[in-house]
Write a structure and sequence with these properties.
Number of helices: 10
Distance between the termini: 42 Å
Strand content: 15-25%
Radius of gyration: 24 Å
Helix content: 25-40%
Oligomer: single chain
């Protein structure tokens, strides 16, 4: 299943396709007992997509057969044992993809000439993905982080390793009594290679970067290249040979402090905007402002959800059973704001006070 929504990947997903390009969305659950119904929910969603293909007169028999085959292939690739909070299946003639999201999605089937990407965009923004580069004299390991976890990422040539020559890297990481290992020219070349590899990966997959290691390792990496200079340094050795849990525990205090600082900054910006009459709140007002490109900063509480329907010139809260309900209006607003160059910040629940879960600083 796919996880990494890079700019190039997003552009590819938004590319027009021969009709029909099918998007199937369904919520999933990580824990019992809610996850017991996920397999049934998923099969029903795929069946509903096939039914729409059958009933759509614009879909030829050959196209219907081909897209149904792609849906079946996608279904066979789903691993619900490692599911997160949402699942998206894309299927079109000759292709399919399965995306696991750390953000819930509404049950939906859409047939169009492009895939429905707003839920992916919103989930990626809320997840705040980041890279972790763990540095040792004999190994440099790359980790992918977000949504409360890290996993080792084997991409861009990582992990980089070299044979231990005349030093004990485990002892260096454990007690740091051989700093000469990081003054060796071979070590300098090794870390320069790591810097080049990381720079290339960041060009294609830009994310915030955290670098872990002994102080002498971090200093040398900054000296031989440019990647570490713009990264957040975490002085913790041993993680190049460590476990995902150890890396997460080392990063967690840093990430939590950054999140608190970010929430304070958002609150100050919103308060200042009120005084300048550049403040807006609520999905009805913000949906129009987002479409007009007026939003400079959008703040959304992490678990804020609301279902609305279009009442003509404004949005109103939907009633149970409304056929025209829009369950992912928050994700629509997030994607629209990002499309017009706005900054989007997800903040802890309760941060926005009386702003009803979503607020913005306007450009004008």
């Amino acid at each position: 299943m796919e996880h990494d929504l890079s700019p190039a990947t997003l552009a590819g997903l938004r590319r027009p396709r021969p009709y029909p390009a099918v998007s199937v969305l369904t919520p999933t659950h990580q824990r019992e007992p809610l996850n017991a119904q996920d397999p049934v929910r998923l099969r029903n969603a795929v069946a509903a997509a096939k039914k729409q293909l059958e009933s759509d007169p614009a879909v030829t028999r050959d196209r219907r057969t081909e897209v149904s085959r792609q849906l079946d292939r996608a279904l066979s690739e789903v691993d619900l044992a490692h599911s997160e909070d949402g699942l998206v299946i894309f299927a079109a003639p000759g292709e399919h993809q399965v995306w696991s999201l750390a953000r819930s999605v509404p049950e939906r089937v859409v047939l169009s000439d492009t895939f429905l990407t707003r839920n992916l965009v919103s989930a990626r923004t809320a997840e705040r993905p980041f890279w972790v580069l763990s540095v040792a004299a004999d190994r440099v390991t790359l980790w992918s982080g977000g949504a409360g976890r890290v996993v080792e990422e084997r991409a861009g040539g990582f992990p980089l390793t070299r044979s231990a020559e005349n030093f004990d890297p485990e002892r260096v990481e454990r007690v740091g009594d051989q700093p000469s290992a990081f003054r060796d020219e071979r070590t300098r070349r090794f870390l320069r290679e790591a810097d080049i590899a990381m720079s290339a990966l960041l060009r294609d997959h830009p994310r915030p970067l955290y670098v872990t290691g002994q102080p002498v390792a971090l200093s040398l990496l900054s000296e031989v290249g440019s990647t570490a200079r713009g990264a957040v340094h975490v002085q913790r050795g041993g993680l190049a040979h460590g476990t995902p849990e150890a890396v997460w525990q080392a990063l967690r205090p840093v990430l939590e402090a950054e999140a608190r600082r970010s929430a304070r900054e958002v609150t100050r910006s919103l308060e200042s905007a009120r005084g300048r009459k550049e403040f807006a709140a609520g999905v009805d007002e913000l949906w129009q402002s987002a479409r007009d490109g007026r939003v400079r900063l959008l703040a959304v509480e992490e678990n804020y959800r609301i279902t609305v329907r279009d009442a003509g010139d404004h949005l109103v809260i939907a009633e149970d059973g409304d056929l025209d309900a829009r369950e992912d209006i928050v994700d629509e607003i997030v994607e629209q704001c990002l499309e017009t160059g706005a900054e989007v910040r997800f903040v802890p629940d309760g941060t926005l006070g009386d702003a009803d879960g979503i607020a913005a600083v306007l450009r004008y």
